[in-house]
Write a structure and sequence with these properties.
Elements (H helix, E strand, L loop, with lengths): L12 H15 L3 E2 H8 L3 H14 L2 E6 L11 E5 L5 E8 L2 E8 L4 E8 L4 E2 H18 L7 E8 L2 E3 L4 E4 L4 E2 L6 H8 L6 E5 H7 L12 E7 L4 E7 L2 E3 L31 H5 L1 H9 L9 H5 L5 H10 L2 H25 L3 E6 L6 H12 L11 E4 L4 H20 L3
Parallel strand pairs: 4-8, 7-11, 8-12, 13-16, 16-17
Antiparallel strand pairs: 1-3, 2-3, 4-5, 5-6, 9-10, 13-14, 14-15
Helix pairs in contact: 2-3, 4-5, 6-13, 10-11, 11-12
Keywords: Carbohydrate metabolism, Xylose metabolism
Organism: Hungatella hathewayi WAL-18680
Family: Belongs to the ROK (NagC/XylR) family.
């Protein structure tokens, strides 16, 4: 349990303290009134009132009696979160596949649906399939609308979360600019609920707030790296920042190489960070060099080379593989320098493909960052290589965001 959690004492006292206690129950299986008092920093009387209200609402339930104290005192009452009080439905649209999940308050998956599709894909089909998945999950879980804290919809592309529209779609389907997907889905559902529509990577980055109180009060940037794409998000003091038009976190489309002619498959521009560091970009870089005698040669000749093999051979000392990874390090250096000048985060978290790249990439990136002009080792942001599973973070991050929004908007 985090001893640094502190109770709120402003005008939104009940809302904030209820949410804080719910967060503690999400992290701990069972808690007593004394446990909560020690963790939150409020009086025992205040904690009892909040817990009793949460029990009346059905959010918290009794878990029996705990162990007696060493002094032989009365066994305390123990409480736990009722994970089935509310659920979130998370729908994720990715390359050639939809996945839908019912997720409870403990972020445990209850049911999953997977639906494949063929490209090209029409916008109408996207809306139809999202609605179909939501309705099927409602049936599978025997859920009533009032049991939902909300629905999340995540997909690649530039998404204006505030307006619920697609500013720029991905290559998997085409639609008009500012297509109102959130409203189109809402209009097709036979019930009303909160719908949160955003770029999937923002949800994935939000997952990094789970079980980390320090990040709730800091500026954090998450860079999510995949085989074919790059995304990310900015979180400031626990709030996911989307921007006025949905472009915050589109790190893959920041230009980091002004010399290359390599084009980004998503936006069509040359020199984008995504085009240079995705798996195809690394393979193209390796193939443009003299690879005779390299451990990469047989993979290049058989057209089976990918980023994981390059990382593996770089860690083993292969000269060509290390040159390719050095190029990727330079691209990360350029991206992070741009991010620092704009956002000045205290922590940069790297998820996905490059978080698992290994020692050679990790060590050399940290060395390059320390050597940045204007900076020294004392003010370089913390670089964290996250070990969370990408698909887990996308769905669970979306559910976490949905739950946080619900309890922030619905304190009673």
């Amino acid at each position: 349990m985090d001893k640094n959690s502190t109770g709120f004492k402003p005008k939104n006292l009940r809302t904030n303290n209820s949410k804080l206690i719910i967060d503690l129950f999400r992290k701990q299986e069972e808690l007593s009134i004394q446990d909560l008092t020690n963790a939150v920093g409020l009086s025992k009387t205040s904690i009892i009132k909040i817990v009793h209200q949460l029990m009346d609402d059905g959010i918290v339930i009794s878990a029996g009696k705990g162990s007696s104290t060493e002094e032989g005192g009365k066994r305390p009452n123990i409480y736990r979160l009722n994970p089935s009080y509310l659920y979130c439905i998370s729908v994720l649209f990715t390359d050639y596949e939809y996945t839908g999940k019912i997720i409870d308050l403990k972020l445990q998956t209850i049911h999953t649906i997977t639906l494949s599709y063929d490209c090209p894909h029409s916008y109408e089909e996207v809306v139809d399939n999202i609605v179909k998945i939501i309705q099927e999950l409602m049936k599978m879980g025997n859920l009533l609308p009032e049991q939902l804290c909300g629905i999340t919809i995540g997909m690649p592309g530039v998404i204006n979360a505030k307006k619920g529209v697609i500013v720029r779609p991905t290559r998997e389907f085409s639609c008009e600019q500012n297509a109102p997907l959130r409203q189109n889905v809402a209009d097709r559902l036979p019930f009303e609920t909160n719908i949160y529509f955003d770029n999937a990577c923002r949800f994935g980055g939000y997952y990094e707030l789970l079980d980390n109180e320090e990040r709730q009060s800091r500026s954090v940037v998450v860079i999510e790296t995949f085989e074919k794409s790059v995304g990310g998000c900015l979180i400031q003091q626990g709030e996911l920042i989307q921007g006025d038009n949905g472009f915050v976190g589109e790190f893959g489309h920041i230009k980091t190489d002004y010399k290359t002619s390599r084009r980004c498959a998503s936006c069509g521009n040359t020199g984008c960070f995504e085009a240079t560091v995705c798996s195809d970009g690394l393979v193209a870089d390796a193939g443009s060099r003299d690879y005779t005698g390299s451990a990469l040669e047989p993979f290049l000749e058989s057209h089976t080379l990918n980023a994981d093999i390059i990382f593996q051979e770089a860690n083993r000392g292969d000269e060509l593989a290390q040159k390719v990874v050095d190029y990727a390090v330079n691209q990360f250096w350029a991206l992070i320098q741009n991010i620092r000048f704009v956002c000045d985060p205290s922590e940069i978290i790297i998820q996905g493909l490059y978080s698992a790249a290994g020692e050679y990439f990790h060590d050399n990136l940290l060395k390059e960052l320390v050597s940045m002009t204007y900076y020294d080792s004392s003010n370089v942001p913390t670089i964290t290589f996250s070990d969370v599973d990408s698909m887990l973070s996308l769905h669970s991050g979306a559910a976490l965001y949905c739950i946080d929004q619900y309890f922030g908007l619905n304190p009673d």
